[in-house]
Design brief:
The complex is a heterodimer of chains A (464) and B (291). Chain A has 464 residues and is α/β, with parallel strands linked by helices. Chain A has two domains: 175 residues, 3-Layer(aba) Sandwich (D-Maltodextrin-Binding Protein, domain 2); 226 residues, D-Maltodextrin-Binding Protein, domain 2 (3-Layer(aba) Sandwich). Chain A has a five-stranded mixed beta sheet with strand order 2-1-3-12-6, sandwiched between helices. Chain A has a four-stranded mixed beta sheet with strand order 8-9-7-10. Chain A has a two-stranded antiparallel ribbon with strand order 4-5. In chain A, helix 3 links the parallel strand 1 and strand 2. Chain A is globular and about 60 Å long. With 291 residues, chain B is an all-alpha fold. Chain B has a domain of 181 residues: MetI-like fold, CATH 1.10.3720. Chain B has twelve helices and no strands. Chain B is flat, with a radius of gyration of 23 Å. The chains are: A alpha/beta (464), B mainly alpha (291).
């Protein structure tokens, strides 16, 4: 009998310990992918000097954690040059996009952040990433005066700048299309309304070309299609953004937002994304456009150079064979402006703050910025003014110049609070919508629920 | 030496104290936090009663589906790992050529890091460019080339299939050890009495292996209930939320800084595990002779 009691008691202890793992354990598991990807927590991977503020930096390793596609190869080359000059090694920890935010937040929330972490700038910095606690004040750094004022606003919290957007935010994502495939399918003009866009997609499909390359597998791109048209919501219904931020209205009760989602879903249901979009990855977008298998993808203009230079470009497409237009959900013809982007922050708990600052200083010199622009094909400029020469193509210039301020607007994630934090959840829900598991109303309701949850957790007065 | 001697209680004291402080106590504290609004967004902590539990069990939330998925994963993987493990264990306990090689090959997936397994299978199971579908197409079985990890109807079964592939070798090894411990004299006696292969398995191997099988079932069930990594690596809960389980939900809540919600789900899992663990221990000890 005693034995049975002992066995039962041990079993209860065993499951209790598993419950304990549910809390702290999740953090351990979260750190694992980072560790497996060649990373290690800062404290382990660093030969930390006794006093990082004054000690010789040579031999130090700083860790930089980023999501896939946030670090250009050219920046890693700059990192190597930086190491050659200073002796400080930069360990780039690149994580898959669909896992990045969860892993980063778990590490930050558990006090185990990397020396430099990357996060999307904007509202979420204060509420989700808590950069006022988790990051170092960079307002007084040598590069601060040359840093674009609008980008600085987006990396600041309560007037203090904690970050640096080292990413081409001077252009945004637009629908990049193959002119030759359009012409071959009988599409003679760039679509300006949703009806025209669907008509073009159908013609392309009928001609044997998959209209749109939509990489859903990464878990972030599909949300772009909807949010990067967000400027149209405020144009169609002035004041809607303000009302959302004051909790005076919801996404679910907004007819325009619902209609835009229905249109997006329509594209998936009619087969315009092809039959493999759930597995398609962003990293392959350029090669699939280069092969001519797909006619369009929502990309930055700089991607055109990469498409043309891609090994898969057997048809010999040139840059002139590609163009760009606005995705006309809700017949949108307002240019999307998006000053936020992946930004770098120095972790306040880092033992290598000075070395990390040196790295940021190094990559923002005129030479480094010019090297990035010249080397990274999809970077045409970065939000700094150090006398660099931007590489905007004539096509990009013409396209951007065709929209004045009255016909431009900030994208949804830059103006709505408690929204960008949900980016990956929204992407998951959009994938569920494409599969028929969720309706557009349910996707919008989930956004509202998520906003309420985050706002209440943050003690936002508007949600009390 | 008497068989029923249990060592004096104080022999276990140090272990129990360490275990209590580092495992039991945090577990209990975690349960306590599930009754609060603990989050990364506020430094204040308020008692909210059963609000978080109500959210988990409300019909509006997805958690009930995650619980269903967790239980389905546990049952299916336990049945298949145990069944296949037993089959392989019996096959590889008989005298066949390259016995150790076969055992090694089957055991190999268990020692691979789960993330490596996940990344490898993500590539193999890619519907367009993956090895499996390319192979099926190459031999003319195009109809069998499916969207393994992204078709909502089969994604969860693909994940379970990969986990069964990964875990069967481990269960097989435990069962081989169990079979090896069965005295040969029983089989000799059975043969003399004219027992055929099936009868030897049914009346000698299976009863003698019962305790080992019970242990493997307990291990599989506990693993299944707390499964996280293989799903995280293969689908991260997708497509949509089709392969979401309780611990991927815990992870997502924790990473959002919604600690109270995360610990609430953990607490729910605790209740599940206590109930299941209790009944399993009862079954496990049912036939034991109490001296």
């Amino acid at each position: 009998m005693k034995k049975r009691i002992l066995a039962s008691a041990l079993s209860v202890f065993m499951v209790l310990s598993l419950t304990a793992c549910g809390g702290a354990g999740a953090a351990d598991q979260a750190a694992a992918p980072a560790a497996d990807s060649g990373a290690a927590p800062a404290a382990d991977s660093t030969e930390a000097p006794a006093d990082s503020g004054s000690a010789e930096a040579s031999g130090t390793t700083i860790t930089l954690m980023a999501s896939q596609d946030w670090i250009e190869d050219a920046e890693q080359t700059l990192g190597q040059k930086f190491e050659d000059e200073t002796g400080i090694h930069v360990d780039y920890q690149i994580l898959p996009a669909d896992q990045y935010q969860d892993v980063l937040l778990t590490r930050l929330n558990n006090g185990e952040g990397p020396d430099i972490f990357m996060a999307q700038s904007g509202f979420a910095l204060k509420t989700t990433y808590k950069v006022q606690d988790n990051a170092v004040d960079l307002s007084g750094e040598s590069w601060a005066p040359s840093y674009d004022i609008f980008s600085a606003e987006q990396t600041s919290v309560d007037g203090v700048n904690y970050g640096m957007t080292y990413y081409d935010t001077t252009t945004d994502y637009y629908m990049i299309y193959n002119k030759k495939l359009f012409a071959a399918a009988g599409v003679t003009a760039v679509p300006k309304t949703f009806a025209e866009f669907e008509d073009a997609c159908q013609k392309l499909l009928d001609s044997g070309v998959t209209p749109i390359y939509e990489p859903v597998a990464d878990g972030w791109h599909q949300t772009m299609l909807w949010c990067e048209n967000g400027q149209v919501f405020d144009k169609l219904e002035p004041g809607i953004i303000d009302k959302l931020n004051k909790n005076e209205t919801t996404f679910a009760e907004n007819a325009n937002m619902k209609k835009a989602l229905e249109q997006l879903n329509d594209l998936a249901q009619k087969g315009y994304f092809g039959d493999n979009y759930m597995s398609d990855e962003f990293a392959n977008a350029e090669s699939f456009l280069a092969s001519g298998e797909y006619a369009m993808c929502f990309l930055k203009p700089g991607a055109i150079k990469n498409i043309v230079a891609n090994d898969g470009n057997t048809a010999g497409y040139t840059e002139e064979d590609f163009g760009m237009f606005l995705l006309p959900l809700l017949d949108n013809q307002y240019l999307n402006v998006h000053p936020t982007g992946p930004s770098k922050f120095i972790y306040s708990g880092s033992t290598n703050i000075d070395a990390a600052k040196k790295y940021l200083e190094y990559i923002t010199t005129k030479e480094s910025i010019q090297y990035l622009i010249d080397t990274a094909a999809d970077v045409e400029n970065v939000p700094f003014e150090v006398g660099q020469t931007p590489e905007y193509s004539d096509m990009t210039k013409t396209f951007l110049d065709s929209y004045d301020d009255a016909h431009s607007g900030m994208v949804l994630q830059d103006v709505v609070t408690y929204f960008n934090e949900q980016w990956m959840d929204i992407s998951t829900n959009l994938a569920a919508m494409f599969m028929g598991d969720m309706t557009p109303e349910e996707v919008l309701k989930a956004i509202d629920d998520g906003r309420t949850q985050l706002a209440q957790a943050a003690g936002d007065e508007a949600w009390k | 030496m008497k068989k029923n001697i249990v060592y004096p209680w104080y022999f276990a004291l140090v272990s129990v104290i360490i275990y209590g402080i580092f495992s039991v106590l945090p577990g209990l504290i975690g349960i306590g936090y599930s009754f609060t609004d603990w989050s990364a967004y506020s430094n204040e902590l308020h008692f909210v009663g059963f609000k978080n539990f109500a959210e988990v069990f409300s019909g509006n939330s997805d958690y009930l589906r995650y619980i269903e998925n967790t239980l389905l994963f546990t049952i299916v993987t336990t049945v298949f790992k145990t069944g296949l493990g037993l089959l392989f264990a019996i096959a590889l306990s008989s005298k066949i050529k390259f016995q150790n090689f076969h055992r090694g090959v089957l055991y190999m997936p268990s020692v691979l890091p789960i993330l490596v397994t996940g990344l490898t299978f993500t590539s193999i199971l890619n519907p367009k460019m993956g090895f499996l579908n390319n192979f099926l197409r190459a031999i003319g079985l195009d109809a069998l080339a499916m969207k393994w990890l992204v078709d909502p109807k089969i994604a969860f079964f693909s994940v379970m299939g990969v986990d069964i592939w990964r875990g069967t070798g481990y269960i097989m090894t435990m069962l081989i050890a169990g079979i090896a411990a069965i005295p040969k004299v029983y089989y000799e006696a059975g043969s003399i009495d004219g027992a055929n292969g099936w009868q030897r398995f049914r009346y000698i191997t299976l009863p003698m292996l019962k305790q080992t099988i019970a242990v493997t079932i307990v291990l599989n069930v506990l693993y299944g209930l707390k499964v996280f990594d293989i799903i995280y690596a293969l689908t991260n809960g997708g497509p949509g939320h089709r392969t979401e389980v309780m611990y991927t939900a815990v992870f997502k809540m924790m990473s959002k800084g919604l600690y109270a919600e995360g610990t609430t789900i953990s607490s729910v899992m605790f209740i599940f595990m206590v109930i299941i663990g209790f009944f399993m221990i009862k079954i496990l000890t049912k036939d034991e002779v109490v001296e």
